[in-house]
């Protein structure tokens, strides 16, 4: 193989896959963080919920919501 062909190959074959893997890891981390936030919201008492303007019903609905059903503007961050 000539030198020109070798330069077109990545120095480390795993480097080419890293952006895909990082995106997957970042999505997992974001989903995990969202799940923890939802669970924390579900554990707030009624006084704390009133402070943030959320009803018990809304908090329970959000706590039971699947992470893949989050609003698009939450997922895009």
Describe the structure in brief.
The protein is mostly helical and 77 residues long. Helix content is 65%, strand content 0%.
What is the strand and helix layout of this fold?
Blueprint: H1 3-7, H2 18-43, H3 46-52, H4 56-63, H5 72-75
Helix pairs in contact: 2-4
Radius of gyration: 21 Å
The structure class reads: mainly alpha
Strand content: under 5%
| Helical percentage | 55-70%
Number of helices: 5
- In N-to-C order, the SSE pattern is HHHHH
* Domain tally: 1
Arithmetic mean of pLDDT: 81
Q: How many β strands by DSSP?
A: 0
End-to-end C-alpha gap:
44 Å
List the uncertain runs.
none
Largest sheet: none
How would the global form be characterised? Answer: elongated
Short key terms for the protein model shown above:
77 residues; 0% strand; elongated
Overview of this protein structure:
By secondary structure, this protein is mostly helical. The chain has one domain. The chain has five helices and no strands. Helix 2 (18-43) packs antiparallel against helix 4. The radius of gyration is 21 Å and the shape is elongated. It starts with a helix and ends with a helix.
């Amino acid at each position: 193989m000539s030198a020109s062909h070798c330069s077109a190959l990545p120095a480390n074959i795993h480097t080419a896959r890293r952006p895909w893997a990082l995106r997957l890891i970042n999505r997992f981390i974001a989903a995990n963080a969202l799940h923890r936030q939802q669970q924390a919201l579900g554990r707030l008492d009624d006084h704390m919920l009133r402070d943030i303007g959320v009803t018990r019903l809304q908090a329970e609905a959000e706590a039971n919501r699947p992470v893949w059903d989050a609003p698009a503007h939450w997922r895009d961050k």
